[in-house]
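Reviewer 2 asked us to include a model.

Predict the structure of this chain.
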Amino acid sequence: MTATANPRRVLAGPAVVVAFALLTVPLVAGALDSAFMTPLAFPGYLVLTIGSAVGNLLFPNFALWVYWVPFAMACYGIAVVAGIGYRAARGGG
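Predicted model (structure tokens):
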């Protein structure tokens, strides 16, 4: 990431949007209807499973649906890191 990188582009650029969509859309579609569950949902499912396991250890009385918000935040964080990696691989442009 260069010093002149636009923060908006780093935090919400096309690479971030695509990475976030790849992590969330297949999993949400599969959660709504199991006919839509495809192997594309595996990365998002892995993030949700790890987050749910940690959340259940920390807060055992919460229902599993509560972990969807941390799941979305974790996916966004992963997407930002992927976006930064993509921009670095492209030479910062």
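DSSP finds four helices and no strands in the chain. The helical segments are 7-12, 14-32, 42-58, 68-89. We have added this to the supplementary material.
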